[in-house]
Automatic annotation (TrEMBL):
This is SDR family oxidoreductase. Keywords: NAD, Oxidoreductase. PROSITE patterns: ADH_SHORT (PS00061). It comes from Aromatoleum toluolicum. InterPro entries: KR_dom (IPR057326), NAD(P)-bd_dom_sf (IPR036291), Sc_DH/Rdtase_CS (IPR020904), SDR_fam (IPR002347).
Length: 260
């Protein structure tokens, strides 16, 4: 399929994990891509992977931190200046934060996680919505989490931020549907990305793979998810095939969030 031929999609957190997998999917479907990540070296690696998968892909790569409002305004402006519009936005950048019970969770750590996962998502939507409102159309997909629709334990900052993303998504979807702009979110469960591996290592240390096996054992599908399985859903939600889906949060977790 070439659902994104000549369409422009902006992706944050594009250097690895879900962002990179989605960029690869969209590049193969003809999209022009603006990819953003604070890790400039990893962003270069992503560019190489994109060009290998889709040699004719047009890419604008920008190293930036989504927790910096001026940087966010800058990469949105650069995308519009380069491509003329933003058809789709995968508002994906996020961090896990430290694993601690709530009573031991540091306020500085809480603010750090919220600054990226919630403030960053809000500011990204704010400036992309301004561009989409001017052009009269667009689609946004925010990355929430199963930790945004139920408790996960020992992740106060992460859970609070992702619950906030769910609220922002539903609120903005209700506001902007009338202007031809759809806003949805995906809520991944345990997907085998560098961020999830980092969380497993926090919990299990040298025995982190055993923790991963425990996660698998309680999942109805008895496995972890793959980044491309999230990318397929994001691509669908950004495409015209999802033209009447708005203000919705879709779990991608093998059914785990409905098990308990």
């Amino acid at each position: 399929m070439m659902r994104f031929q000549d369409k422009v999609v902006l992706i944050t957190g594009a250097a690895s994990g879900l962002g990179r997998a989605t960029a690869l999917q969209l590049a193969q479907e003809g999209a022009k891509l603006a990819i953003v990540d604070r890790n400039g070296a990893a962003l270069e690696e992503t560019q190489g992977a994109l060009r290998a998968a889709a040699p004719n892909v047009e890419i604008l790569a920008i190293a930036a931190d989504v927790a910096d409002e001026q940087a966010v305004r800058g990469f949105v402006d650069q995308t519009v200046a380069r491509f003329g519009a933003i058809d789709g936005f995968f508002n994906n950048a996020g961090i896990e934060g430290k694993q601690n019970p709530t009573e031991d969770y540091g306020i500085d750590e809480f603010h750090k996680v919220v600054a990226v996962n919630l403030d960053g998502v809000f500011v990204g939507m704010k400036y992309v919505l301004q561009a989409m409102h001017r052009q009269g159309y667009g689609a946004i997909v925010n990355t929430a989490s199963v930790g945004g629709i139920r408790g996960v334990g020992n992740q106060a900052g992460y859970a609070a931020s992702k619950h906030g993303v769910v609220g922002l998504t539903r609120n903005a979807g209700v506001e902007y549907g009338q202007f031809g702009i759809r806003i949805n979110a995906v809520a991944p469960g345990a997907i085998m990305t560098p961020m999830v591996e980092g969380a497993l290592r926090q919990i299990g240390g040298d025995d982190w793979e055993a923790v991963g096996r425990e996660y698998v054992s309680v999942n109805p599908m008895k496995r972890l998810g793959r980044p491309e399985e999230v990318a397929y859903v994001v691509a669908f939600l950004l495409s015209d095939q999802a033209s009447f889906i708005n203000a919705t949060v879709i779990p991608i977790d093998g059914g785990q969030s409905y098990k308990y």
